[in-house]
Amino acid sequence: MTDIVLPSPLRAITLWQPWAWALIFANKDYENRPRSLGVTGWVAVHVGLHRDDEYEFDALRSMPNGIRKVSNETIQEQRGHIIGLARINRWVDRRDARPSPWLAPLLGVAAVITDRIALKTPVKCRGMQGAWRVPEDVERQVREQLRPAEIVPDVPLTGARC
What we know:
By secondary structure, this protein is of the alpha+beta class. It is built from four helices and six strands, in the order βαββααβββα. The protein has a six-stranded mixed sheet. The relative contact order is 0.28.
């Protein structure tokens, strides 16, 4: 157990399923974007209402820590909620990033995720594009779940594709 010092105000990023789930629960170590969102440190991970195509879910099912461990109902219930926190260490050009099954070869940059925390109870929240400020009432609910918090370790994956 450790104490987590979150920035104030707390910022969030929105990801589609299954990528939000993978970032928090399957040790996804990169968040791929066409350009940097300009935020580092702890951010809330929000699940957007949209979801990627079924072939994206199929790709995750083959990962060592993949989606086969979670029900489709859970994936759907998480939409429109903050499900955890992730620590963005830095943004890197994909050509300079270390190999990872989570690194998308066609997008410009990637956020390097070094730690993540799953919330025990997802918090309902409307998301936005880019890095956005979490509403005060939602931030309060997130912070209440962090006493004490357990950081999910960054476990490297091998032999997987994204």
